[in-house]
Amino acid sequence: MTIPTSSIDQVIPGEGAMAQPDTAPAAKAKRQRLRFVANGKAATGLIMLAIYCVLAIIGPWIAPYDPDARSNDLLAPPSAAHWFGTTHLGQDVLSQILVGTRGVMLVGLTAGLVATVLSVLIGVTAGFLGGAFDEALSALSNVFLVIPALPLIIIVASSFTTAGDVVVALTIGFTSWAWGARVLRAQTLSLRRRDYVEASRATGESTWRIILFEILPNLTAIIASGFVGTVIFAVMSEITLAFIGISSISSWNWGTILFWAQSQQALAQGAWWWFVPAGLAIALLGTALSLINFGIDEFVSPRLRSSGKSKVKTASGQTVRMRVGFTPVLASRPVRATQVARSYPAAPVSNGKVNGAHVAPRKEEVK
Amino acid sequence: MKYLLQRIAFYLFTAWAALTLNFVIPRMIPGDPVKSMISRFQGQMDPDAIESLYVLFGIDKQAGIWDQYVDYWGQLFRGDLGLSFTSFPSPVSEVIGTSVWWTVLLVGITTALSFAIGTGLGVLAGWRRGSWIDGLLPATTFLSSVPYFWLGLVAIALLAGPGSFFPSSGGYEPGLVPAFDQYFIPSAIQHSLLPAFTILISSVSGWILSMRNMMVTVAAEDYITVAHAKGLPERRVALSYAARNALLPNVSGFALSLGFIVGGTLLVEIVFSYPGLGYLLFRAVGAKDYPLMQGIFLVITISVLLANLLADVVYMLLDPRTRKEG
Amino acid sequence: MTGQPVLEIRNLDVDYGLGDQAVHAVREVNLTLHRGEVLGLAGESGSGKSTLAYGLTRLLPPPGVISGGEVIYHPPGGEPYDVLGLSDRELRAFRWAETAIVFQGAMNSLNPVHKISTQLTDVIKAHQPNLSAAARTARAREMLRLVGISPDRMESYPHQLSGGMRQRVMIGMALALEPQVVIMDEPTTALDVVMQRQILGQLIELRERLGFSVIFITHDLSLLVEFSDRIAIMYGGRIVEEAPAETLYRDPMHPYSQGLLGSFPALRGPRRELAGIPGSPPDLRAMPTGCSFHPRCPKAFEPCPARLPILGQPDAPTGGGRTVACWLHPARVPVG
Ligand SMILES: Nc1ncnc2c1ncn2[C@@H]1O[C@H](COP(=O)(O)OP(=O)(O)OP(=O)(O)O)[C@@H](O)[C@H]1O
Ligand SMILES: [Mg+2]
After folding, report:
1. Which of A21, A133, B60, C95 is geometrically suited to a Cys-Cys bond with A129, CB 3.0 to 4.6 A?
2. Domain B92-325 bears CATH identifier 1.25.40.10
3. How many Å lie between the centroid of ligand 2 and the Cα of residue A365?
């Protein structure tokens, strides 16, 4: 549904240009974590995500109505009584959205967690152990990668008589770990060849100790980014399943709202309030997660970061953006045109080699 | 060539895995829904059709699992995917056959177009960082977070409706007969505009972003500095050196995310009641038409695999390192 | 032919970053390259050699900026001009036609998706648009032959060539437009010793034939002593000593040069003790006051931590034709 846009996903480390995550000592790592939070994109995303989490917890309590309760205000547009309007049965759309948040977040996070655990297990094991293990596990994840996920999820979920939240979360989790596994495998491969890992292997440290203490800490950013990416995918899939009526429609989630809106011809009746809020809620959640991922991306590969000040005033009086290929010459550069035309004595030559004293003109320099 | 053969072997393996998955899933869960369906149509089905559904869904528990598996494959090779319940008594293969071209054309063309446009804009955004395209990025992030189908709903609400140029549903004017003539083709195109636009809008930003990031990464490579040092024209450095290399990971990314994209585009069909596989799948799900669902899954998987193979061939043409050493 | 300056670097300052965060990677460098000479540039890793070389033609990637100085180019039989003052279009025309660069790590200098022929001819096309395609190809083949590669490798892709061949292709490419100056940044570090000498020997031969000047950058002082006419030593972004190759080899004045020379075994003559330099290169963000070498200098004395020594002609009997920045050899000629 969403294309994985993270550059971490796109660039497989070890196969192409890839900024390696910093392997920094603890103090520096702390400073970097702070820098991650200070990153505008990541901070915005985290704040938005926090709001969603709070709503997931308190949503059912602050909902003004019972989302199932019918009223006489059938298909009413937004008003003071019903901020987001009502459905064809007079149910309050705002309450449905608020109550639905919990299910969406729970399923998204659970599926993301399942997929992340699987991708770490499979990707890191494959990358670290290598050999036949690697071949088999890579083939497995590549198979899962090319099989279209959503139809597979639909097939699996619809095989259950009633697909509750747990079934949906597990189905999504078990089918969407392959991206993460692939990226993690490649990164583990390149980490494995690093000196300090080779060194611990040479000193006979156990495989699991090396994986836990040497490899995993350096994969944090990639694992986090994979988790966030999977949550995006899981939320989308879950809502899709509800929208096409596969998961049980007895519990509320944003997809269920859209399902009813679609099946009751909300569009034809001009009831835009019925489907717009749910869509915006999804889109904003997706945006929040994407922003977090951009933050992680820029954190991992500094090239993507737009460095603080990128415009400079050049000697020719223009303001230019820094770019590859034409290093700016700063405006403050002292230019002494008179020297250009000055002629210089040729250096004396002996034995074909230059022996002449070369005394270049230079600035006064007494400090 | 060796590379291509490897890829083909991999896709054959994947196809085998998908088909086997298709065999296993109904056997892991109670086959009751199919059984009840069959018994509902008991009188109207000829014994052969019942037999083939038994084989497909493993209701015939008498036979050993291995015999079932062999029978299953035998049936697939005959192109027998069972009977559809919703369009009873049409065979699944026939029902899918009429829908698949709608999807292939709509999704194929728009996905390729979206990739081309997104990559182009990504090249610009990555080469001239901080230009107006960078300003578009937040908006495109938002758009790529919107589910395709919801964007479709909004598009219908805003642009379609009575009196509008854009029809809100269907693949062609009701009443027309599908044919390659001057009545049908324009109508089909007119009906596909809004779904195509929806897919384009929601998928293009992903390509912009990934191409932009690849351009930024590639711009720091040594050969780009060399190209600048050679005093080549800016266009040549940007296109023939930077973009040409940045394209490679984007093409393999394209192949890998096809599976994701197809899922999203199927939903657009549902919203627009577009007569393709997605809409068919939607109806099959609603009617619990298991044979049809399974058949659609197989067809989609095979199509995605073929598209992947195509992307691999393109990649091979683009990257001399994968070609056989000459 | 030698003796006339072809490239003069004056007071060149290069920073990475802007304002307070700027790292001064090259400071007030003055250096003159004469026509037909090979000028060696040596120094530890991180001393700013590459930064200086790429800064000359504004090839540093962001956040690099040139914060001061001039680079005066003397075209043969023309008026000298400041390369840093050229417009982008002029600079593009200047690059490769007048100064070509063989980059550090020439392994990645070739575009992996284009054939060697394409990469050799596109630069000719960009600078000599009137030349016919056939003439361009002929020229490209000639360049390959010149660096000892069979012209039927023209249709190869970079990954089909060995490291040494790629290096030669880059050198051939650098000479394609017969530039006046060729900057070679550690062109041979990835190669084995035999191959290194072979390629450099070839280059020197070509120089005698074609008459270009070379700025030759390397860690390997033994190569420099063998192949260059003059050597400049860099430390912490500054030139600390500059002298004819023989002089520098026999009688290095700056303790840092002495240390550098001590870190490799003598080529010929009496064996010297392998000393090396204790300590590590300075952190550009926190440069020591005074002479930046003083914390590592075995001969540091009272003025070293306090005041910056000036690069000038030393007041010593052997001081002719060389400059050094060290309080042990205070400048005889006050320069400025
Ligand atoms: N992008 C950058 N940002 C900040 N500092 C940089 C950057 N690039 C280089 N430097 C610093 O500039 C200094 C000079 O680097 P330079 O590459 O010129 O050294 P060098 O003498 O060529 O070393 P080597 O022999 O290893 O090639 C180094 O100390 C380096 O840390
Ligand atoms: Mg260097």
Report:
1. A133
2. no
3. 27
A11 contacts on B by Cβ (under 8 Å): 213-214, 217, 249
Q: Are residues A286 and A336 in the same domain?
A: no
Find how far residue B55's CA is from the centre of its chain: 28
Among C69, C91, C98, which Cα is nearest to C8's? C69
pLDDT of residue A205: 78
Q: How many domains does chain A have?
A: 2
**Chain C partners of B244 at a C-beta cutoff of 8 Å?**
111, 113-114
pLDDT at B43: 66
Is residue C113 within 8 A of residue C195, CB to CB? The reply is no
pLDDT at C287 over 90: no
Bridge partner list, C100: C182
Q: Domain range spanning residue C45?
A: 5-236
Give domain status of residue C14, yes or no. Answer: yes
- Which residues 47-76 on chain B approach chain A with CB closer than 8 angstroms? none
Alpha helices (runs of H) in chain C, residue ranges in sequence order: 49-55, 88-94, 116-127, 133-146, 163-175, 193-210, 221-227, 245-250, 255-262
Q: Which residue has the tokens 């230059």?
A: A354
The domain of A357 spans 310-367
Q: Are A72 and A193 in a shared domain? A: yes
Quick one: pLDDT at residue C134?
A: 95
Structural domain includes residue C81: yes
| Residue C48 Cβ < 6 Å to ligand 1 | yes
Q: Which two tokens stand for residue A142?
A: 């590549």
User: Of the candidates A257, A278, A306, which is a domain's last residue?
Assistant: A306
- Strand C181-185 with A311-313, pairing: unpaired
Strand pairing class (C64-73; C181-185) = unpaired
In a mutational test of the pocket of ligand 1, which residue from C49, C215, C238 has the highest number of ligand atoms less than 8 Å from its CB?
C49
Same domain, residue pair A253 and A330: no
What CATH code is carried by the domain that includes residue C85? 3.40.50.300
Q: What per-residue confidence (pLDDT) applies to C198?
A: 81
Whether C30 maps to a domain, the answer reads yes
Q: What is the pTM of this model?
A: 0.81
> Which run of H or of E encompasses A104?
helix A93-129
Residues A206 and A87 in one domain: yes
Q: Give the amino acid at C331.
A: A
Q: Tell me which of A306, A330, A347 is where a domain ends.
A: A306
